[in-house]
Amino acid sequence: xxxxxxxxxxxxxxxxxxxxxxxxxxxxxxRSVENYTAPDVVLVNQDGRKVRFKELMASSKPVVLDFxxxxxxxxxxxxxxxxxxxxxxxGTDSAKVQLVSVSIDPENDTPKVMREYLKRYRARPGWxxxxxxxxxxxxVMRAYSAYVPNKMSHYPLTLIRNGRDGxxxxxxxxxxxxxxxxEFEKASKP
Amino acid sequence: xxxxxxxxxxxxxxxxxxxxxxxxxxxxxxxxxGERMYRQGILPSGEPMQAVVKGDVAVEGTMxxxxxxxxxxxxxxxxxxxxxLPTNGRNxxxxxHDRYGISGEEGxxxxxxxxxxxxxxxxxxxxxxxxxPTEREMAVAMPRYLLGDSEMAILIAYxxxxxxxxxPGVSDNLIRFATVVTDDVxxxxxxxxxxPLKAFVGMNNGAKRKYKGVGGGKDPAYRQVALDIWEITGxxxxxxxxxxAYSRKEPVFALLGxxxxxxxxxxxxxxxxxxxxxxxxxxxxxxxxxxxxYTLYFSKGFYQEGDAVARHLGGLGDGASEETVVQxxxxxxxxxxxxxxxxxxxLEQGRRAPVEKxxxxxxxxxxxxxxxLAGGKPFTLLLxxxxxxxxxxxxxxxxPVRPSAVYVSSGMLKxxxxxxxxxxRGATFVTWPWRLPQVxxxxxxxxxxxxxxxxxxxxxxxxxxxxxxxTRLLSDAQMMLRENFYRDNFLDVVSNEEDKADxxxxxxxxxxxxxxxxxxxxxxxxxxxxxxxxxxxxxGWVTH
Lengths: 190, 544
Hints:
The complex is a heterodimer of chains A (190) and B (544). Chain A has 190 residues and is of the alpha/beta class. Chain A has a single domain (29-188), classed as Glutaredoxin (3-Layer(aba) Sandwich), CATH 3.40.30. Chain A is 35% helix and 19% strand. Chain A is built from 6 helices and 8 strands; from the N terminus they run αβββαβαβαβαββα. Chain A has helices at residues 3-15, 53-57, 75-90, 111-120, 134-143, 177-188, and strands at residues 30-34, 42-44, 50-52, 63-68, 98-103, 127-130, 157-161, 168-172. The model of chain A is unreliable at 1-26 (pLDDT under 50). Chain B is 37% helix and 16% strand. Chain B is of the alpha/beta class. Mean pLDDT of chain B is 89; it is low at 1-24 and 102-109. Classes of the chains: A alpha/beta (190), B alpha/beta (544). At the A-B interface, helix 1, helix 3 and helix 4 of A face strand 2, strand 3, strand 4, strand 5 and strand 6 of B.
């Protein structure tokens, strides 16, 4: 359990029940526009190939980035279903969009685990799942204001790079396919 | 909502053979079908379940299903600001009273409204349309499921039975655990294993742990802890019957720790077959499996060391990883596990199989024979031997046909690691599945101080420190478990613990649903040339 988990657990102890409450982000998606600089680190993708993260982020294609892990509950499944649906919308053009998921549980997320995960979500070419050393993954999380000291206290975040000026749209919350597509189109308009 | 209409039409198509398939499904069969929906997202017809998240995100059950969020025991989870409510029998079919909590990040306070107990009808409504009996709409993360009536009936029957009664070993005031000790274990090791567990029981049963509920009454989740010792004797093929006899006589909620000099397999299989959790036994020979559920290990043991070597060697580049690899391994558990760990990870990288030779205890090979295995080409040598590796390396330095690098296992060499010839240290890499000694004292300072103050016996085998880690994990788990005394939920709860980076033995322990080996790391080190060598890390704790 993350920090939040601890606080809640404490509340449980006091009140003698568990669990309780309602999701914190049901109010809707929070949107902002940000500038980020990709750190120069080498990560490993689902095929065990080394990937220079900075180069991937500088792709001429539109880029979408999220932070997940293989055994995560509730948030990652929904985020990944979103990626899967987006790819489906693009059909055979799926590789025209670069979808990137960075693991926040790099110790457990080996290429094999990531490959199986992608298969479950019927990932097509154009969706890369990246792992690496904890230090490098931390650098990536920090660069996108997504750092969490503990994987259990992460939150749903989708980042879309605007093709025109390289700015990032930061979306905090879970997106419907329609919302995702609308944001994506805004970001990738020439 | 087009997606929904589309999915619905799919459903209608698949509903016809389904009705035929489920009519006549008996109790056990219905349970199995319900469990498959819950755990694998597959309908009785064999098709994936269909659902919609966030209004229009279509989801197939094989991507994720109930278990992915509500977990195996059904008591739910709390992750990333999302509370996944319980969906187990006991919680669903009793009313929920006013509940509140606070969530850290934004100091958010929220209140969860009471609701009456679910009925079959209201449960079907919440699963299909996302409204609970008070008309409260579920958060967007809870999918709306497209289920036919007979499918719904099967799922609901399963939910009714899921975590509906406390597991064996729990009464109103006591929770019973056991720990397994086999008769090959020395008195000292046995005592070292038991000391932290007994301290845990003492603390739990002492007055301080009977924390009060808000009203000032006794905490309803508090239980005294009993710890039985299951002494197992004789050869491994007789262990299972002894374990089952103990379990019949006095059932336990879970097994804690435990120790054997041999393979944990018979105990692992017992836990698996009887669905009894077993937490963190002390063993060099855990069962390495992707799917087994009931035993949580500290690590994959020797297997993990071999795996780390494959990752290290594979990542070296400059031709080193293209050389022929020769694996010599001692006939026995350790050598075989190291060789298997390397082989599996090496082939997984898509590389050429290593040349392997099993060595019998006492058998010695000449360098010519070893070089011959590599066909006279440059090679890397993996030497999974005990102290017999030392004289071999001693002689090797004089030989013109030397391997370009040698890997040895610290776990197999044990104390003779220090006598690794200085001449070969520059070309010899050692597996080190522990925290580096030079940083241990800082990072794990608090733990070590506690152990000292508690006058725990010290031991070279890290038995006390590991069992201490278990007791800390247990204390955390107890807080999260509350009154949900279901064995599967107990494992779910441990799986949701935070990473631990301040325990004495491992750089990091991490958890997650289905993760069964908490330490995933192993350094590759070299020894400094000093008489009392220091360990120089040549890899990270985890390498990909």
